[in-house]
Amino acid sequence: MTEVVTEAAAAAGSWRRAGVAGAALGVIAAGAGAGDAIERLTVGRGMRKKARLALDAAGPYGSLRGMPGTAYADDGTELAYEAEEVEGAPDGAVTVVFSHGYCLNQDSWHFQRAALRGAVRAVYWDQRSHARSGRGVEQAQRDVPVSIDQLGRDLKAVIDAAAPTGPLVLVGHSMGGMTTMALAEQFPELIRERVVGVALVGTSSGQLGQVNFGLPVAGMNAVRRVLPGVLRALGSQAELVERGRQATADLFAGVIKRYSFSRKDVDPAIARFAERMIESTPIDVVAEFYPAFAEHDKAAALAHFAGLPVLVLAGEKDLVTPSEHSEAIAALLPDAELVLVPDAGHLVMLEHPDVVTDRLADLLSRAGAGGRAAADAESSSG
Predict the structure, then answer these.
(1) Cα dist. 318→212, 215, 260 in Å?
(2) Which end of the chain, N or C, is less surrounded by CB atoms within 10 Å?
C-alpha cells in the first residue's frame, strides 16, 4: 500500500512540475505580459474553452491550400511545400517563395497568400520539424543541433523541387529571413543567377543574444543564463511538459498575444490563429531550435543581395526581433526600401496585412514580376 501511495505521490509531483514548467516557460517569455494572463485566468475555464472552439470554427485563417509537394533535405528530412499556380502563366514567370518564422508555419502568410492567388506563382513551405514537414532527421536520430545554415540548405532543397527554373523572389519572416540569408551565404550563384527580389520581414542578421524581449536588462541577463538549460530540461520531458502546457493554456495565450502583436484591438480570431500555430510546435522542437539564434550571424551574407530590389520591413514595437535589427540590415543594403510599421509587433503580416501586402506588391513590380500580378495583389489587399 505504501508503495502505491508513493508512486501516486511521485506521479502527482511530476504533473505539478509539468504544469509549473509550462508556466515557467511562459513567464520567462512573458515578462510584463503576466498581468494580461492573470486577467484571463479569472474567467471560467469552460467559458474560455468554448470561446477558443468558437474562434477556431469561425476563423478562416490558415484554410488556404495549394498543390502539395515534398522536398528532401540533405539529411533526408521531408519538407512539405504547397505551390499556388497561375493559369496561363508564361514560361519564365517569377515564383515567390515564402519562408515562415520560428514556431509558426506556412499558414502565417494567410493574408498575403489570399491576395496573391491567381496573380503570381508562389511556393509556401514548412520548416523542418514544423507543421506538415517531417521531424528533422539529424535532430531526432543523431542529436545534431539545428543550425541556421541547415535551414538555408533546406530552402535550397525546396527551391530545387518546387521551382527548379525561372526567376525567384524570396520572402522570409523572422527565422525565415535568417534562412534566406543562410541560403545566400551558401549558394551565392543561385542569388546571382535567379533571384530578382528579396523581402526580409521582422528579422535579424545577428546579435540576437542582446535582445531583452521587453524585460529589464538585469532580469534578462539572468534569464539568458538559465534559459538554454531550462529548455533542454523541458525538451527531455516533452510528453510531460506538453500536458502541463495544456493545463496552462490561458497563460500561454497571454504570452503569445503580447509577443505577437502590438495593437490592443487585434481581431480575437487572428490572435487565436497565431496561438494555434505556436501551440502546435512541440516543446522539444522549441528547445532544439532556440540555441541556433544566439549563434546566428549573417550580416556578411547580405552583400549577396546588393543591387537587387530589397524590402526590409518590421513592426516598430516588435519585442522579438526589434526594428533596430531591420534598420541594421537596411544600413548594410542602402538601396533597400526600409518600412517600419507603427503599432505593429512581431507578426506584422497578420496584424497589418494590408501594409505588408502593399509593400510586397510594390517589390514584385520592381522585381519585374509583372504589372498585373502586382496590381492584383494590391487591389486584393485593399
Answers:
(1) 11, 13, 8
(2) N
